[in-house]
Amino acid sequence: MKSTNSAVFRIFMNIPPSWKVCTVEDICEINPTQINNNYPHSEIEYIDISSVSHRRLESIQVLPLSIAPSRAKRIVKSGDTIISTVRPNRKSYLYIKDANPNTVVSTGFAVIRPFAADSKYVHYVLTSDPFIDLLSAIADTSTSCYPAVNPIVIVKTLVPLPPQNEQRRIGEILGSLDDKIELNRQMNKTLEAMATAIFKSWFIDFEPFQYNEFVNSDLGPIPKGWNVGHLGDVAEIVKETVKPNENPNTFYLHYSFPAFDGGKMPNLEQGCNIKSNKYLVRSDFVLVSRLNPDTPRVWRPLLKSDIPSICSTEFITIQTLNPNLVDFVYGIVTTPIFWDFMLANVTGTTGSRQRVDFKEVLDFPVVIPSREVLKEYCQIVKSLYFLTQQNLLESRFLAQIRDALLPKLLSGKINVSDVEINVRKHQK
């Protein structure tokens, strides 16, 4: 193992005497391989920074190498950790699983490949809050046009190194929690896809009603007895401003854009740490992003009666006129047609700050079925959304366990032999 004399920074100062301290470069390679003239693949599976968030991979682009962006250079293998060196406070990091020989990531990532430590242990050390806070603080002093950090900071940081069996056990404990959170996320994608398919079948393609009599309307033929109206006929926009900093000791469930992008779970935050005004969120609300509608964001709140809920003023706070129709309204605002309407009504000239006016949303044309059909539809999809919410609640609980354990395990304050986790026990 190399000397640690060249180390610049250190995280987790107090560790057990049986543990060692080393620099990241003592146990890992950084950016070890990249595409060169001898690269054998004509097609790549490309991971960009925008597709990674909080240990989640949202998408992979399959591209011919000939038209791939110039930043698509760094080759990754299973067991690597990738960390965005651009705006590290956004926590765009990921543990690579099941990489293919042609999997490539952006040069905006630092690729860390352990050779003398457990790969999952290294991942959790280098994505821990102390380490990301360190990178973010250094990035904020950057003289470039955006906050960025040199990968040399990563390799020159001192990190704790427990015995190999403890490293492996720490990785297993934390990894089992993240694996269950990811499984819940995939289950929810399936459940929401099922609900979306049912909405499309009923209210766009009219498949269950194909043998009914149809009449002409402004939206084309619709079943007889149904009407054409606007979103404003079944919902309204309610804006109740909240100033959290006037109640500095109150805790809020904060529905923010970073929280949405980080897993669709609101953050529990104290009023003193929320500087801007927010909107109050109620149980029959549906939150729709008015900012940059090319990235659809639709959120159904998870409310707890004892904790006030608030959201960013960049969300449109839609309240159903009938509380029993939340599932119907949610179905409307998750359709591609709705987001095409949003894009058509956007204002603003810059791509990063385009918005839709609140009032425009209520003008979206909708088909309004009979009361009997609405009741039947909501009864069918209710169970799907209930399971989705239960999975989200469980994932939040598991994430809280992980975040509480992580610093204690990585500093040796909790002995791994004292921790036994069975994620199935936390099913709701």
Q: Could you characterize what this model shows?
A:
- The chain is α+β, with helices and mostly antiparallel strands and 428 residues long.
- Among the domains are: 9-161, Alpha-Beta Complex (Adenine-n6-DNA-methyltransferase TaqI, Chain A, domain 2), CATH 3.90.220; 227-368, Adenine-n6-DNA-methyltransferase TaqI, Chain A, domain 2, CATH 3.90.220.20.
- The chain has ten helices and 28 strands.
- Helix 2 packs across helix 5 and helix 5 packs antiparallel against helix 10.
- The protein is globular.
- It starts with 8 loop residues before the first strand and ends in an 18-residue tail after the last helix.
Topology:
Blueprint: E1 9-10, E2 20-23, H1 24-27, E3 28-30, E4 43-47, E5 52-53, E6 56-57, E7 61-64, E8 72-75, E9 81-84, E10 93-95, E11 103-106, E12 109-114, H2 119-126, H3 129-139, H4 151-155, E13 157-161, H5 164-203, E14 214-215, E15 222-223, E16 227-230, E17 235-237, E18 241-242, E19 251-255, H6 257-261, E20 267-270, E21 278-280, E22 285-289, E23 298-299, E24 309-311, E25 315-320, H7 326-333, H8 336-344, E26 346-347, E27 355-356, H9 358-361, E28 365-368, H10 371-410
Parallel strand pairs: 1-13, 4-11, 19-24
Antiparallel strand pairs: 2-13, 3-12, 4-7, 5-6, 8-11, 9-10, 9-12, 14-15, 16-28, 17-25, 18-21, 19-20, 21-24, 22-23, 22-25, 26-27
